[in-house]
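User: Working on a comparison across species. This one is Exodeoxyribonuclease III from Stakelama flava. Can you predict its structure so I can line it up against the others?
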Amino acid sequence: MKIVSYNVNGIKARLPRLIEYLDAEKPDVVCLQELKSSDETFPERDIRDAGYGAVWHGQKGFNGVAILTRGGDPKERRRGLDGDPDDTHSRYLEAEVDGLIVASIYLPNGNPLPGPKFDYKIAWFDRLLDRAATLLAEERPVVLAGDYNVIPNDDDVFSVGAMGSDALMQPESRAAYRRLLAQGWTDSLRTRFPGGGVWTFWDYQAGAWQRDCGFRIDHLLLSPQAADRFGDAGVDKSWRGLEKASDHAPTWVRLRQG
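Assistant: Here's the predicted structure for Exodeoxyribonuclease III from Stakelama flava:
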């Protein structure tokens, strides 16, 4: 089973690339982030015509997450996180697919810092930690897939100096990510590439793609029951180089059937 995390950076703008990806790679589950689309304008028909069912949690112009499944419909379990009833951002969606629990996550960016956006990032991460702990307590195979907006390690970025003042690399951001792993989650891409140097994002500016100046912020974390089924992980990097592509590449983990 191939599970993909893919920040599309606007589903309407990237729809041709997404449909091509689904047709070529035929992933079993795709967690999308940054839809930038309301619930009403999500392209459900195009997704279904490509052979995928979907659940989605949209937000006009910002954020937005979805879960696609090949050949059927995912069963939605939860949208949004507890802990802030006034939070209107569409950043978390959870579903069940063939006995596997999957969450699509778009964690706040946090820039500029210091300030309220960075404070919101860390507070949101704390709410995610609470939900992640609850999921672990179910003792089931779970994949937390998404754009975490955290560069976990120095070898996950092309230049520590270039990104050192960014919210993605602050000690508080990294500490929150480490607390998540410490609950018992496995970073699938790190497991496959323990030496780092694997990017999932290349900025549109300054020729970052052409110079391979990227970093790793898209992560698929596995519960112990999912980690027992780990087969492989990687980045479908070539899709970043296509015309009108997202600035993220599809990032994936492959699990053996349970």
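For your comparison, note: The chain has one domain: 2-255.

User: Helpful, thanks.
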